[in-house]
Fold this sequence. Notes:
The protein is α/β, with parallel strands linked by helices.
Amino acid sequence: xxxxxxxxxxxxxxxxxxxxxxxxxxxxxxxxxxxxxxxxxxxxxxxxxxxxxxxxxxxxxxxxxxxxxxxxxxxxxxxxxxxxxxxxxxxxxxxxxxxxxxxxxxxxxxxxxxxxxxxxxxxxxxxxxxxxxxxxxxxxxxxxxxxxxxxxxxxxxxxxxxxxxxxxxxxxxxxxxxxxxxxxxxxxxxxxxxxxxxxxxxxxxxxxxxxxxxxxxxxxxxxxxxxxxxxxxxxxxxxxxxxxxxxxxxxxxxxxxxxxxxxxxxxxxxxxxxxxxxxxxxxxxxxxxxxxxxxxxxxxxxxxxxxxxxxxxxxxxxxxx
Length: 321
């Protein structure tokens, strides 16, 4: 009987914790229509969806697009509140110009939110096959560009005691392939963690979005396979012989499989971004996607010998074995 009472008490405590968690999660800010949010990478994908969602909520969205075409299409699909600006996050002049535009637009209100969504993924391939230029392309967008945008706009966010939302990835917690993408997302995690602690006393909250694989253009297999083929064809003969053609073929199949198995529920990611911007109590980390929740993150906490075994077991094997 005493054992039953003990387990019942544990169950009650767990239910109360879950109810409290749900209650906190459900609390949404008031006066959202007065708040400005700046979003990068709004031409397509998650950024485009988030811009439309926040616009429907009545928020004042400042959408940064890479192309005039993307900006024009977005403006046609949203209200007159939404404003666009052309931004190349890898160009410091472009970032400075966009920051001045944002400052003039928000005026004394300050900037409630910055969502660093712009991303570049081309470069998923073995490390030895790539040149430093291949790494730089990814790092300049995903990490350095994100830092540059944040630093330029941080004083406006501090003024509003607002939010910084940075898009990382499940592979920002568990490095699963070569190239610059995983290091760039690990860098997003590190920068966001330090920024969150620095901004705490200013009343600014920093959230990290860690999506798994979703069916967006960023994981389109044709693009990645073509990049991988170019690397393979340009490899020295000795390197090709060490890896073997079967290794290359297995890499191609892995990229094609990733696109097939990626989740079609892409709304989960902008929903997390929206919560981070609009909730009274935003989470520090959001992990949309079952693969992130039940594979990447749990495996990242296990001893290295176990995670290495799991990842290496399904990895391509070189010919030299």
